[in-house]
Structures are given as C-alpha cells and as structure tokens.
Amino acid sequence: MGQIFLSVVCALSFSISALAAEIEEQRTIQKTFVFDDLRGERQVEVDNFEGSIQVTGYDGREVHLLVHEVMEAESAEKAQAARRDVRLEIMQTDNTIRCYVDGPFRCKNGSISFHGWERYGYKVRYDFELEVPQQTGLRIKTVNGKDIEIEKTSGKFEVENINGGIRMTDVSGAGRVYALNGKVRVRFTENPSAECYFGSLNGNVEVYFRPGLSVNARLKTFNGKAYSDFPISYLPAEKALKKSEDGKFIYKSGEFQGLRIGEGGPELKFDAFNGNIRILSQEK
Q1: What is the reported pTM?
Q2: Percent of the chain clearing pLDDT 70 (strictly above)
Q3: 233 forms bridges with which residues in the sheet?
C-alpha cells in the first residue's frame, strides 16, 4: 500500500486555546482533476493539520476538490506571517492527487510539532470536501478538526485523526483506520477481503459487517469490553516472542485475543485502549 501513512509524531504537545483574532480572511479553492490512467490504481491523499475532511465516492471519472480556507490572526503582522508560513500544496503525479498543508508546525519528516496557538499568533484552517471515483484509494489525515467523514468508496484506505473521530459509511475495500482521541465507526457494504486494522486510544471502535462474515479477528482493549453479533471460536494465542537482553532470553506473548468468525479468512485487528469494541451485523 506504499509508505506508512503516519510518521512518528515528534514533540507532540497540542495546547489549544482561544485566539483573540483581530483579522480574519476567507477564501475558497476549487479544482477538478482527471486521473492519467483510468485503468490503473488511483489514489487521493490529504494530509491536513487544522480542519475537517469529507470524501464522497461517486460513479464518475473526475476528482472534484473544494477547500474552505479561514485565516485568523491577532494582528496585521501575524496575518502576514500566516500568509508567508502556512501553505496548501496541491499536486498531481500520474495517478496520485496530493493535498498537503505545510507550516512551522511540521517536522522535517512531515510529522507534527505543535506548541500552541499563542506561540504563532494566528490560525489557518482548511476544510476539505472531495468527490472521487468510487474505486479510488485514500490516504487521509488531520490533527485538529471535526470527524473525518468518508462514504461510498471502495478502494484501499489509510485514515487517521488525532483529535477527532472517523466515520466511514457504505464503504468496501480494506485498510487501516485510527483515531487517537475519538470514536471509530465503519459500515461496510461488502465484507473486507484483505487485512484491516481498526483502532482508537480514547474512543469506541464500532464496525458493521454484512451477514456471512468469515475472518480471523484479533482484539485488544485495556479499559473496555468487546462484543460480537457473530458466533465466534477462539484461536490459539500468538506465539511468544523471544529476545535477548543482557545475555538473558525474555519471552513476551502477544497482547491480542484471537477469534475466528465463520470459516476464518483475512485478519482483522480491533484495538481500543480506553473504549469498547463492537463487531456488528447489518442486513442492509
């Protein structure tokens, strides 16, 4: 699926406070893209920082992008700094369309180092709305904003939200979904045929599948419970890992509980540290 979607976050310190804005500027960006090779794999990437992301699949050939930009600053000097330092880069390379929000909060490796709005004296928000062909692959990320919302897509997906939830409705395909401080809710129209991961640190993980689900599931929760609408059988525990420290061998068993649903199949991982896991069945 390409490179790992989220690099390690360096100096992660989100201190959100009200910004006494004296200056506010708004603009709207609209673009339409056509993939170079309609028969090849297609991908849309959005790497946002402040703002929401909505993606809707449709039966078409073009990608329609609408971005609402709002800049707030406490002075004319800070507004000038915002215009200079924060940039939205939109580019197309072959069959990949990429939107990337850059600014002083980025580390060299693309991860986030944020020290509070008081330090910058401005805030620039980008709210994305996209229409994409249904079979488009997605790599979507934001840090501060509302829930990420995705519906009616059927490609591979990598979706991550730091301070918000993730809602995926009427989707198919397979991939990774993670919300650090929010709820994960996914509703499939077709059961996954490849490996998936659904996780949250501080939220519930709730995934709806079609009847007849047949997978191997791995579940882990620390301060929550796990529920399943489907009959299950237990899989053997993961083999303990062995490593050497100071000349001694240390064995550490896997932390995931293995379950088989139906006849087994692709591995689906469910990980909710401070939340419940719900594996649900839907008829429609």
Answers
A1: 0.86
A2: 86
A3: 260
